[in-house]
């Protein structure tokens, strides 16, 4: 059942993104940034945790989940270190995902052969 919940949750998030791309003049970059900010806002109000409890990886893997991780880390940082934790906690909370993205990005850049973008 967990897989189905993750599929449904991630599918809804992706479907909403596709609707935004198709029906608005928002650029994909603005939609991505909006999703991160929305994840922070929803976690700030305590709403996104319910979505994560239901959808698991379907809620934590998309960009909404990155915003959720930042907000959750910032809240933990404030509880531990006070005001300074608000600035350092978000990065600490998302450090694993950020490090993985950097490592895998570098690894694939080393292993793949670049192609000419001009199409010739």
pLDDT averaged residue by residue: 87
Straight-line distance between termini:
49 Å
Find the structural class using helix and strand composition. Answer: mainly alpha
The count of β-strands is 0
Order of helices and strands: HHHHHHH
How would you describe the shape?
Answer: globular
**Portion in strands:** under 5%
- Number of structural domains: 1
The share of residues in helices is over 70%
Poorly predicted segments: none
* Count of runs of 4 or more consecutive helical residues: 7
Computed over alpha carbons, the radius of gyration is 17 Å
Q: What does the largest sheet look like?
A: none
Quick synopsis:
With 120 residues, this protein is an all-alpha fold. The chain has seven helices and no strands.
Provide structural commentary.
This protein has one domain (2-111). Helix content is 82%, strand content 0%. The protein has 7 helices and no strands. It has helices at 2-23, 28-44, 48-55, 57-60, 63-81, 83-93, 95-111. The longest helix is centred in the first third of the chain and has 22 residues, at 2-23.
SSE arrangement:
Layout: H1 2-23, H2 28-44, H3 48-55, H4 57-60, H5 63-81, H6 83-93, H7 95-111
Helix pairs in contact: 2-5, 5-6
Task: Provide the descriptors you would attach to this structure in a database record.
120 residues, mainly alpha, 82% helix
């Amino acid at each position: 059942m967990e897989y189905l919940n993750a599929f449904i949750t991630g599918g809804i998030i992706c479907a909403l993104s596709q609707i935004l791309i198709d029906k608005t003049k928002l650029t994909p970059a603005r939609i991505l940034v909006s999703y991160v900010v929305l994840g922070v806002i929803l976690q700030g109000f305590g709403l996104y945790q319910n979505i994560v409890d239901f959808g698991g990886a379907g809620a934590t893997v998309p960009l909404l989940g990155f915003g959720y991780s930042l907000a959750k880390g910032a809240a933990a940082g404030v509880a531990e270190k006070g005001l300074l934790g608000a600035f350092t906690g978000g990065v600490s909370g998302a450090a694993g995902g950020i490090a993985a993205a950097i490592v895998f990005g570098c690894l694939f850049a080393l292993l793949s052969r670049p192609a000419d973008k001009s199409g010739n």
